[in-house]
Amino acid sequence: MAGARCRAVLAVGVVTCGLGVAAWLGRCPALRRIARRAAAVIMALAGPLVFRLGYSLYARTRLGFLFYKRQVKKARERFPHGHSVSQPLGFRGVKIVPIPVLSNNYSYLVIDTDSGHAAVVDPSDPLAVQAAIEEEGVMLEAILCTHKHWDHSGGNAALLQQHGSCKVYGSAADAIPELTHPVGDREKLSVGCLTFEALATPGHTVGHTAFVLDAGPFGGPPCLFSGDLLFLAGCGRLFEGSPETMLASLDAAVGLGEDTLLWPGHEYALECLSFARLLELDNPALEQKLLWATQQRQEKRSTCPSTLGEERTYNPFLRTHRRELQEALGLQQGSGEHHDAFRARVLREVRRRKDLYKATS
Fold first, then answer.
1. What share of the chain is helix, strand, coil (3-state, %, to 5)?
2. Record's family (predicted)?
3. Catalytic site positions
């Protein structure tokens, strides 16, 4: 107990000190970068208590909202035209418009081109989303919110004010701002002639929900809007779930089929692929994707979408069943250990290493 109390005091001290020097650091970009890296290393190494305190402040207090507002302001100044150049994708009667927001997030405007009705996924910056709505000349019918974190839900209220008949879909298990229509696992919803299916994918948050567009009637493959469940070569941190929970969510996503297009919530391709390369040194698919992504990012081009079939060849979080990854991690299945329990242990280790890699890179 004494150790726990000391860690609690240390955690509060770190947070208080951080708040006290924030303004001073803001005057020096170099010091600010150093401070961010130091804070990330502390969060990764100081143990679960400090990590949980920081997360609770972000997710459950007004400090999180104020941090989000600062993110929006800084991103608009730094990336007046968005952090990436995105290419809309169209099928017969469907158009998907990626909207680069904040410093690395994506929102997506999904349009039924026949009716002019549209849904937006995770509207982080309402101004950027509204600009896309006006440019496309569509009527916003729905907001599909994958989870409660402000960088995915922060624009809900502002858009709802502008589009009074708009519905906000998401999980009731997450405290999603302005939620009007809670959805459960495998529940379907319609926007114009488009049909989406909600897919419960807890792990990152307790109520995280991905949305799957059925593009079959329009001659296209399924489209997975994965939020922070799955990225190109990565997956979300386990803020509110266990490795076992995240493994089940990833398996549910992979079950959608190899041709499914993956539209992730962040532009993390280079970071995730570079990390994956440390685990699998002799993976031709990984090497090829890393070269491609490097070229894309040098030109500030988006790396979205990939496919689930591609992801299975290089994404370590989807390769927990592969012997080469298990051996690279130095893990072996225990006698009598269930295969899925072993895979969850592999996932835990990959996630642990990824957290440390992000903190020190």
1. 50, 20, 35
2. Belongs to the metallo-beta-lactamase superfamily. Glyoxalase II family.
3. 147, 149, 151-152, 204, 228, 266
